[in-house]
Amino acid sequence: MKADWFQKKVEELSKLKGYQKPDKYSNALKLDSNENLAIQREFSLDLINQTQEKLDVREYPLSGTERLVEALSDYIKIPSEMIGVGNGSDQIIDLLLTNFASKETKVLTSEPTFGFFEERCKLYSIPITKIPFADDMTLDLDKFLSNAKKAEILYLDSPNNPTGFQFIRNQLEQLINEFEGLVIIDEAYVEFADYSIVDLAPKKDNLIVLRTLSKAFGLAGLRVGYFVANKKIVDVFTKAIQYPYPLNTIAIEAGILALQKSKYVSEIANLVKKERTRLIEKLRNMEVFEVFDSKANFVLFSAHGAGLRMYKALIEQGIIVKNLGKIGNQEGCLRVTVGSEEMNSKFLSAIRDLLK
Q1: In CATH, what is the architecture of 21-38+263-355?
Q2: Domain 42-260 belongs to what topology?
C-alpha cells in the first residue's frame, strides 16, 4: 500500500526517546534545569507587566524581531546585520541541522554534550563523532584537532553542559581556525564564563555563535534565542530559513526591556560566580565527592556509588538536582544549579545531613 512508508516512518521515530524534559515537582527547590533562580522573580514580572501595557497581541509582530536585534546589537556590541533570532537557541539548532546537515554529514562534538543537539542529530540520522571527557571533566584539544578533517560540522557548547568545562580561549580559537567546515559554538552560559568568542563570528565565514536570554537573563519561559555570524549567513537564515514570526510579541518586548537592564543581570551573574566558587569549595571540603570546576551556573560532582541514593534522598528533602549517572569513568554524577545564597545554603545543609 502507498501509505506503508508513513507507518514505517512512524514506527522508526517511535524508537527514538527524544530530548527528555525534567520532571515537574511541586513545593520543591528546583536546582536541576540551570534556570537562573538567583535573579529576582520580580524582575521578570515587572518586564511582563510593562509589556502588557503597550501591546496588542491581536496584531502580528511586524517589526518586532528587528527591534529586538537592535537591542541585542547594543548589548553585545556587534552590528545588527550579523545577528539572527529564534524561538530559543533550540529552534536555531534545529533549523541549522535540517538545512545544513544530512545523513552524509559528519558532526564532531564532545561526550557528553547538550542533549537536545545530540537527540536532533539522531532524529535526522546525522552521524556524530564524540570526543569523551577525561576523568577530571576536561577535553583534549589534540583529539579534536586529529578528528577535525573527518567532520563537516563542529558543535561545542562553551561552557559545556553538563560538565561546566570551557577551553581556554586560545585553544578554542585554534580549533575554530583549523576546522574547515561549519563551526557552531553554543554560548548559552557565557555570561557566567571567562570569555566569549562572539567577536570572532563576523570575521569568519563558517562560524555561528549561539546565545540565549534563558540563562543569565532568567527568561527561560519566554524562549528567546539568538546567534551571531557573518552577514551572508544571517541573511540566508533570516530571509530563507527562519519562520516569518519566530518570536511572539510578549517575548520580543520583554526581551528588549530585559536587555536595557543588562547591568542588573551582570550583577546577578557575578553573584552566581561567587556562589559557584562557594559551592565547589564546600563540596570539596566534605572529602567524599569528586567536584569539577565549572564556568557555568551549575556544578557537576560525582557521588560515586551513592549518586542515585543521594539524588532520591535530596528529593525527599524537597531539593531537586539533575541525576546524570555515569559520565566517562565517573559514577554517580549529579549536577546542581547555582541559585541564590539562601538556596545554595539549603542545598549544602541537606547534603551535610545526608552524610551524617
Answers
A1: Alpha-Beta Complex (3.90)
A2: Aspartate Aminotransferase; domain 2 (3.40.640)
Alpha carbons 204 and 208: distance in angstroms, whole number: 9
**Per-residue pLDDT at 1:** 54
Q: Residue 19: CB partners within 8 Å, gap ≥ 6?
A: 115, 116, 119, 120
The C-alpha atoms of residue 51 and residue 17 are separated, in whole angstroms, by: 37
Residue 213: other Cβ atoms inside 10 A:
26
Extents of the domains making up the chain? 21-38+263-355, 42-260
pLDDT greater than 70 at residue 332: yes
Question: Which residue, among 299, 322, 294, 326, has the nearest Cα to 310 in the 3D structure?
Answer: 322
From residue 80, alpha-carbon distances to 66, 92, 143, 234, 332 in Å are 9, 17, 36, 10, 44
pLDDT at position 15 over 80: no
Position 38: which residue type? A
* Encoded amino acid at 81, one letter: E
Residue 48, Cβ density class (10 Å: 0-12 exposed, 13-18 middle, ≥19 buried): middle
CA 109/CA 153 separation, integer angstroms: 9
Give the C-alpha separation, 219 to 211, whole Å. Answer: 13
Q: What global pTM score does this model have?
A: 0.93
Tallying the residues shown for the chain, one arrives at 356
The per-residue pLDDT for 58 is 86
